[in-house]
Design brief:
By secondary structure, the protein is an alpha/beta fold. It is 43% helix and 13% strand. Strands 3-2-1-4-7-10-11 form a seven-stranded mixed β-sheet, sandwiched between helices.
Length: 325
């Protein structure tokens, strides 16, 4: 940490440690913990000057941010709370931070249900929806539509190599939705039966590009060719104001053991992991905004090219570090 920034409250440091060690995980949980930590820092601060108070809050934000800087919900929570800091005295500044953090946490608890209501409005009775991977935001749209009395069917891609589509299929069956489970390579064939493609997002860049589970981009391209609209369901904590285009996002490469079991290695003559075979297992891909029809959030639905306006409204014009004034 910069020497010019004061020490933070021990409870903030403890929250930072929990985020770093993944004791606190998941986009919404991380965001909630970050907002709570800033509120605690404000409440516990014993400095006398407004300048020192602001420095202390920025130091706390920096400590939290450096735990997992690629978790987009974390800087978004910090920006949202710090952007509301206002007042001429320490007392006023403290009150503004605590109120802003409480507002953020309140909105966060209701975000997914509101998002579901927005997404449900795009679905009609009798629609067939194709899904990819597992997304609680996407599921919330389907759940809301079912609560509205609409009958739906689902075509669920299994989503290799970890087969998260099985989770989606199981949840939809619990909800009474007829499910057709397909292998990933069959998606193009079954798009002729689909009325919508519905996916979630790991993050969304300022140009409306969608970073999501590998295979999303290919599905979106095929859907556009077939005239099937693509809806992306994502809470606003997934918006990534620091990233101008999705192609600047570093894609996580996962372990090759997710792709090749010992039996599969034997089948291709690579039991000893010898030379001549490279296994790559990217976790995500980038879907350009031209293949997305709507991004559905708790704040409403937006065409991809308009999402940058929402980012500015929520997090401000600056795309610098969250603790910067």
């Amino acid at each position: 940490m910069d020497e010019s920034l004061p020490a933070v409250d021990p409870a903030v440091a403890a929250t930072a440690d929990d985020i770093a060690e993944m004791e606190i995980r998941g986009a919404a949980t991380i965001a909630d913990a970050a907002a709570e930590a800033l509120a605690r820092q404000a409440a516990q601060s014993d400095v006398d000057s407004p300048s020192a108070f602001r420095q202390q809050l920025r130091a706390a934000a920096k400590t939290l941010y450096e735990t997992r800087p690629t978790a987009v919900s974390l800087p978004n929570a910090l920006r949202y709370v710090l952007r509301g800091m206002s007042g001429e005295t320490v007392s006023e500044l403290r009150a503004s931070i605590i109120a802003r953090a409480e507002e953020f946490q309140h909105d966060l608890t209701q975000a997914q249900s509101k998002l579901g209501e927005v997404g449900s409005n795009r679905l009609r009775d009798g629609d067939v929806v194709m899904t990819h991977c597992h997304s609680t935001d996407a599921l919330s749209c389907l759940e809301a539509a079912l609560e509205d009395g609409k009958e739906l069917e689902a075509i669920v891609k299994e989503t290799r190599p970890r087969k998260q589509g099985y989770i989606t299929a199981g949840r939809l069956r619990e909800l009474g939705v007829p499910v057709t489970l397909i292998v990933d390579n069959a998606a193009r064939r079954y798009l002729d039966r689909a009325d919508h493609v519905l996916v979630g997002a790991d993050s969304i860049a300022a140009d409306g590009s969608v970073i999501n589970k590998i295979g999303t981009s290919g599905l979106a391209v095929n859907a556009r060719e077939r005239g099937v609209p693509v809806m992306v369901a994502a809470q606003t904590i997934k918006l990534h104001p620091d990233t101008m285009t999705g192609h600047t996002v570093e894609i996580e490469m996962r372990d090759e053991l997710e792709v090749l079991t010992d039996n599969e290695r034997a089948a291709i003559g690579d039991e000893q992991a010898g030379e001549g075979l490279t296994v790559e297992n990217p976790a995500f891909d980038v879907t350009p905004p031209r293949y997305v029809d709507a991004i559905v959030t708790e704040r409403g639905q937006f065409p991809p090219e308009s999402v940058v306006t929402l980012m500015r409204e929520l997090f401000g014009e600056s795309t610098g570090e969250p603790w910067e004034p």
